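User: Here's a chain of 399 residues. Predict its fold as tokens.
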Amino acid sequence: MYEFPPTLQAAHERLSLVDPKHYAYSRNDLTGAVSYLSPYLTHGFLSVPDVATVMYHRHRLGLQHKLMMELGWREYYQHLHQHWGEAGIAASLHEGVLPESAYHTELPDDVRHACTRVPVIDQAVSTLYASGYLHNHARLWLASYLVHLRKVHWRVAADWLYGHLLDGDLASNYLSWQWVAGTGSNKPYLFNADNVEKFAPAPWHSRGTLLDTSYETLDILAHNPATVTQAGDRNDAGVDEPQVYSAPPEHLGFTAARADCVAGRQVWLVHPWALADVPADVPSDVVVVAASWSEHTHAHPWDTRRWQFVGDRMAALTPHRWWSSVPEMEAVLAQAHTVHTVAHLRLPDMPTVPWQQRAAPRLFRDLDKPCDSFSKWWVQVNKGVRHLQQLVYPTAPRA
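Assistant: Prediction complete.
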């Protein structure tokens, strides 16, 4: 089972094990040489430039390598989030296979409890609950099944998945679901039992189920508003879904924001998406504060595993760990001399805080206008770039 210790050492050890050669040809296999870096990237232990730098130095990786393109997808989704905002990526970009009203707004109980009698789906849900992680291919299968066969609205299913992912990034999650649903792409993503058998171990194989059919039949089913389920006994016990929480568990030691900690002080603000070590060049008398906002966790609650992952890392950085509303947090931080932090799209707007924000680390350049496809974005951000070295060590502005 997947394990992700919430330490910088673990993140760098995982990075040192990345094998880009094997990744290139086995990444789609559930037992392939994927990086397992996503929780550390989402929560800012590492950045995409960090990974690119190591890949360049250790492996002389080229810019068009499959691993670099996958890292590009992460930044492409951030690019869309930046231009469209959370409201923009949380709504269907255009109509999908069926009208919005054709999709259910509740997750089926048999999916929620991993007792659909379709092995690939039950294995995916069980793995998600047990580890907080799913291989990307398994995420695509789960999403396709829910949207196109069970007719669950992609946003409902995406929010459920996010609550149990250690690496849940809002932009990557929402926009990946839209790609599968066909609301953010030109056609729906479909899969069948042959595809599962090609890329997954035996317990996931789904011969003799509703997936054991042709892509033509699956396309017909996706375009029909009827819900398709697996025939059989529905009395399977299944597994219990981990509870999600909109507030941190008490044992993690979060408190309300406290002005006496920061009034008149230089502050380094740690937040859930910037959990790297405190930079060496911040003022020597800086007070380190870790913060999470109730508005975000009420809208997007986490299960215990993710709270523990974030909370343990914050505890390693500072004894001051706050969970408050944005207005309460702003009122306290506004009393600091300066608040240093790393910018992030999830960082709330608090205009009265005396910010000194460092730019979010990005490998690829910003674009003034949103690109409606990854391929267009990839061409634009790599214009004039021939080698990865130019991105790892930029020497001049790129045209």
